[in-house]
Amino acid sequence: MSGGAGNPTGTLVNALVAHCGESLSGIGGVRRPGIVHRLDKDTSGLMVVGRSLTSVTALVRAIAAREVQREYLAIVHGELATDAFSIEAPIGRDPASRIRMAVVGSGRPARTDIRCLVRTGGLSLVECRLHTGRTHQIRVHLAARGHPLVADTTYGGRPGLGMRRQALHALKLGFHHPSSGDALRFEAAPPEDFAQALQFLRGAATTT
User: What is the CATH number of domain 69-206?
Assistant: First the structure.
């Protein structure tokens, strides 16, 4: 997680500065040195960090051109009726709350592809692919469809499966290296809390 309001320490920014020191100076600003895109607070998984201004610029442009593949796992309330679908709805600041985003007509275009992997016991495990990178995009899009993420209290989610944070994990990341052009693909296994929730869901699905 990168530094943000209310999170001055214990963030990815702090670790990057400690590890790389002056080599990241001036790249992305003091609060986001080398960081190409952000993860929401309490979302686990992969992020991209560039160690030169050239790399950061190229990667930011690749994301804007939708050339970076970003796939997430999420656990949501409700059993999705459709195996695969896309949500294309503009996202902007929620007029009723400064800490929330919402689907609003004046927002920026946003698209999320959804694929349901497991549905059982009033919950669904879904794979989400981002075509855009709006703040809280997956959380907002799914909540707007009546499927808030488990434990995502900001958007109407309820606690469950032992999760104490929104049930969202950045699973896969694919892009071309900004210098060599080589195709790169990374995958991060879910941390313990998410892994235990997955095990319960998949076990429940096989017994129903």
Answer: 3.30.2350.10
